[in-house]
Amino acid sequence: MSVRHTVHCAVSFYHRETGLFNGNHLIASDDAAVKLNTPLDHIAIDGHYDHLSKKVDVESGQVVDYQPAPPSAEHEWNTSTRRWQLRAAVAECQQRHAAALARIAALEAAQHRPMRELAVNSQSVEARKRLEAIESEIASLRASAYS
Amino acid sequence: MSVNYGPTTNLAVQDTSQIGPNAVSQMISNYGFFTVSVNNNITQGSGSSTDVDVITAHITTAGFPVAIDVSSTVTLTGGGVPASSFTACTLEVWMDGASIGSTKWDGKNLANYGGGSTPPAIPVTLSATNTPGAGVHAYSLHAHVSGAGSVWSCTMACDASFIKVREIRK
After folding, report:
1. Which of A55, B19, B44, B90 is most exposed by smallest CB count within 10 Å?
2. Would you tell me how many other CB atoms lie within 10 Å of the CB of residue A32?
3. What is the pLDDT of residue A2?
4. B77 to chain A nearest CA, in Å?
5. Rounded to whole angstroms, how far apart are CA atoms B62 and B65?
6. CB neighbour list of residue B64: distance below 8 Å, 6 or more residues apart
């Protein structure tokens, strides 16, 4: 009685010189398919590996921790997620900037009414007061958004 | 060899030699953890297009039907706001360098959808079948971007792309 096993291979691919994974995860039911799907200058290795935090030491063939180059000086390495992330201060600054721009957009959307009232009645103290309040707040937001 | 069936019945186990290699389906799946950008820079007043295979799986078939599933998370940027200069941004299943037809996604009308500064990530899944001749075949999720009419950079970014190819035997 002949026996045929269904084999499921799960492999990752690394560059034969750098040891860096290419980010592809392949699953195949036929060993021959792995060779067929191996990119040029790459080697298949059993298992699925995170290409952003692991690489292969080409000397030993072992999978080792890997830290890619930082995207910018404003990033720091998170040892828990094993990813580069924006420094907290930078992220906070970006959020403050985005919030300021959103508030400015909302204020500018609200400026049309007092402007219309002033166009109709240039002596409208109330409309001028509201327009000046909008201008004052936008100036303050601009100062904080770009600080 | 036998299998107990009920309290008193034993069923003989049949030799499965009749289930030969030709009866065994096979499966290839390829998942890419990276973004492939299809960037199409349009020259004023003229059309242009760009084609890219986002992710590919090779399979050796014996002439049986093949089922293909592909998916990707697509982000469309550029093309102008509010009127889009995209004339097409499609995903299709290709085999050996040509579309197998039968299924296509075109997101040109979704470009700049929502109008916000952050374009939405659009999940796309396609399923198709075909029956190629026996041999090695390359199936791919193929992206095509084209645009016309203005000066814009139309970009379709495909992230976390997946392709599964199965030859269905018996």
Report:
1. B44
2. 13
3. 43
4. 19
5. 9
6. B131, B167, B168, B169
State the Cα–Cα distance between residues B95 and B91, nearest whole angstrom: 13
ipTM of this complex: 0.75
- A23, A27, A33: residue with CB nearest B32: A23
The answer to whether B168 faces chain A, any CB pair under 8 Å, is no
- Nearest by CB to A27, from B19, B29, B55: name it: B29
DSSP string, B27-82: EEEEEEEEEEEEEEEPPTT--EEEEEEEEEEEEEE-S--EEEEEEEEEEEEES-SS
Q: Are B153 and B85 in contact (CB under 8 A)?
A: no
CB A140 within 8 A of CB A124: no
Closest-CA residue to A43 (of A13, A74, A76):
A13
Note the pLDDT tens digit of each residue in B18-55.
556 567 788 889 998 778 888 777 666 667 788 999 99
Preferred mutation among A3, A6, A30 to probe B, highest tally of B CBs within 10 A: A30
Provide the shortest C-alpha distance from residue B87 to chain A (in Å). 31
Q: What is the token pair recorded at B103? A: 């299924």
Contacts of A95 in chain B (CB under 8 A): none
